[in-house]
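Morning. Coffee machine broken again, so started the prediction first thing and wrote up yesterday's gels while waiting. Chain of 229 residues, entered below exactly as on the submission form.
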Amino acid sequence: MPNFGLNISRLLLGLGALTSCTALAIQSAQAQNAGTTFFVTSTGIGNGANLGGLAGADNHCQALAQAAGAGAKTWRAYLSTQAADGQPAVNARDRIGKGPWQNSKGVVIAKDVAELHGANNITKQTALSEKGEVLNGRGDTPNRHDVLTGSQPDGTAFAGGDDRTCKNWTSSTQGSAMLGHFDRMGLRDDDASKSWNSSHPSRGPDGGCSQADLRSTGGDGLLYCFAAN
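Came back before lunch.
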């Protein structure tokens, strides 16, 4: 019986230590996520490039950040819109704050807007989701490296004319959206294929803006999200 009591005591001590370690791990993960100021969404909204406009896209970023423990910040989707219906264009680079921005592991991807649109540190290994996960890129199944941006390489909106924002993020049928590659890889070894924010327009049999169209070129309606404060 004494041995039985001793074993029970040891078991309880072990469980207590395990619980303490688990609590510390959770606290550490929460602290890490609280410091996150950049992520790629783990999922799209699910309605192709119809995001409900900029407001809907921002809400998606905010909701995912909130679930990951970083909801205290103000989150913005990296998206441009084109001038239409009397409304001026909006540049993605002007919506996301001043930086610096870091992923959930604390790796800085850019110290400011200029570096973000220059020699930034966005790669497949650093463009983590809000959960801290590496997402599927070129060579993975399924490939999900296309990210909606509607932007030129310098982060500004396209001039009127050709649609590059799926009707300012309200269409899931006709139109086209400019996409970037978070893994910096494409079909060719050129600047466009390696561009994180301006690689190629969406296209497909449904008109260019549906969820199926986005998936057909290696995407899933994913977004870049930045903490703007």
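The chain has a mean pLDDT of 89. Going to sketch it on the whiteboard this afternoon.
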